[in-house]
What does this fold into?
Amino acid sequence: MRFYQGVRNLILSLLRKILFLWVRTDVSGNTLEALGLDPDKPVCYVLQYRSLSSRLVLEQEVRRAKLPGSHDTLPVKDGPGHAFFFLYKRITGLFRGRRQKLVATDEFNELVRFGLEHPEQEVQVVPVAMLWGRAPDKERSLVKLLLSDNWSVAGRLQKFLIILLHGRNTYVQFGQPLSLQETIDEYRDNEAKANRKLARLLRTYFRRVRQAVLGPDLSHRRTLVDGLIRSQAVKESIQKTAATDKVPQHKVRRRAYKYADEIAANMSVVAIRVLERLLSRLWNRIYDGVDVHNIEIAREAAQDNAVVYVPCHRSHVDYLLLSYVLYRNGLMPPHIAAGINLNMPIVGPILRRGGAFFMRRSFRDNPLYATVFNEYMHVIFTRGYSVEYFVEGGRSRTGRMLQPRAGMLAMTVRSFLRDHRKPIVFVPVYIGYEKVMEGRSYLGELRGKKKQKESVLGLAKTARKLRHSFGKVSVNFGEPLHLADVLDEDHPNWRTETYSEDYRPYWLPQVVNDLAGRVASGINAAVAVNPIGLTATTLLGTERMAMDEGQLIRLMDQYANLLRAYPYADTVTLPDGSGRDWLAYCENMGLVIRQPQKLGDIIALEGRNAILMTYYRNNIQHLFALPALIASLFETRPSLRREKIVFLATAAYPYLQSELFLHYPREEIETVIQHWIDVLIEQGLLHQLENDRIGRPEEGTDEMLRVRILARFIIQTLERYHLVLGILRKYGSGTLTAEELEEQSTLLAERMSILFGLNAPEFFDKTLFRNFIANMQENGVLEANEQGLLVYHEVLEQVAEDARLVLSVEKQQAIQQITMMDA
It folds into this structure.
């Protein structure tokens, strides 16, 4: 027996070595830490289908990871003779042809029987999913059905061809171990039910992994487009459009087909694999690495849900980068909503085969197009495809989150209301660049230069930049947001209502706005802090954007410690190293200059870099918003009562929350502010005085410098608010419309920016003023009368006086002069 077993193991070892001359694997979850195995309990691996090649791959991977061997004898009496088993085997008869029946293997049944007979003997059952070629298939392509792993069970010849074609792209995922005894405990007297329960749990795991990695079965694109035109909603829209435009229905139907063909993605197995290889080379060329954090959030969300990835939008690279990261981590690339401007020659077809579907910027005046697009989105969601779109609409030119455009979110909610059998989960994604590729063009656009239209020629010009290094990129996944949970909170009766294709319930806008805010806050709560952002934040907080090298290093370390003392969210990541390392890195990237001095070198920002660095500061400004707000209250006062600090910070919070998408709920903000006061005292930035007063450090001390610079992280935002209040008080109540106030505020902010040499382009951003004015109306500080004129009450006068606490005397006088107010 031992001789036979030794010969068998020798043969298997030889076959394994031969197989891995060709096969290459990408493995997930194969560490002792990830599995959380108990070393004192036996381990048994389980594969889904009987297959010699899968058995060989399993043994190779457990050896590489130094896990308990799969060919070791399982130390349980009467159980399987080795430490793995297959869940199913195929049964075929002589006259059954291709028909196959899957039944549980004898080893599986024996293990369950052993567990029932020996309740004191535990076994850790580890499911291992294995996919040969990670890509979806198309149901009408015979060649691809033969040559790609898919949802069907491959025969021997098909499996051989799959390994031959896709063996170098094999994905292996180890799942969390199941406790044999805990699983079968409730069925001690019923072996059949115990078998079914364990098999169901294992089958569910394999199904979830397969769906997350392969995605749902894809229909042929032509079939999908034809199906859209035959849907009831599109048929009715065709009839209405034909009647309204007085055009024959067949011509309108042809137009609808053209719209559907223009929109629909054409995801291709070959394109995804080619893009993955090309992008691997591209990232290695232009970036020093792609850091991925919290990918397990995306993996878990993708197993049982239709996932909507909602990243921030900083660069055109975002589209490719997220798909690349997901694919490299064993997840199906999403269908991506792309602007029609990207559907240009050469580039458009490639993006479409990579999963992009194209949408026009606006289709409010084209109901037929809107209906076709809505139906396409509904098909995507109900079939369980993952989707990616940018809630900001366009790329941020300032580095901040833009105000969400809720169109795609509204379509998603309406689709879910029509059919909510497939849960939808939003996964916020923060994509952070140390040096954004379009940085220089953003500067031009902020100075009034016309935005360049995307073109093949423009793409060729961009390709010249690939010779430069753009540092590292971080991709952080935030906490998932379940759409059903949002609806339950905002409109608990949503499940009991009936929805047609074009029904828009009265409560939908409020739910969508709430969802948009949550998504944007979730993105900001997953921010990656990098050396560039910390350096930019600190230097831009100085008066002359220059500082002694040693002092700058100490300040960066101290501000990083401030973030560690009260973490903004668990999904936020901080850079490794210290201030000295970060400064050296930033200097190497060419973003700061060094001026040698005998008393110590000076580090400074100059020219275009000074403005460009505001972009990277704005990436992380929200992390410092509350401590900076508290620090700013001591600009003109040496001490304040704690109660006054909490009151003023709480009053300002709704406006900061709306502008910076802070994630603290308003009902909890007083507690958060109290906590931040305590942290600032612990860090030596504030002092506890008698009578519950809080004091700032003494002038001239290092601590006071830290407080003053910290306050400047947010001071320009507060100055903008004060500017609006100053204009309102100048003109008086009931004299300006919201549009006039916005225009006046923008012009005066631009003037103030020139007078004080402010380098932040967002200081006179019209949309920020519009948002602030709208928030004052929402909070009841302003009201619009019947003529549309803004009316305010005495409370605004008090708010304006309190706001003066954060402004230096120089800034107060400047705003008074600019608005021609009396002192």
Remarks:
- The radius of gyration is 31 Å.
- The first strand starts at residue 25 and ends at 28.
- The chain has 33 helices and 23 strands.
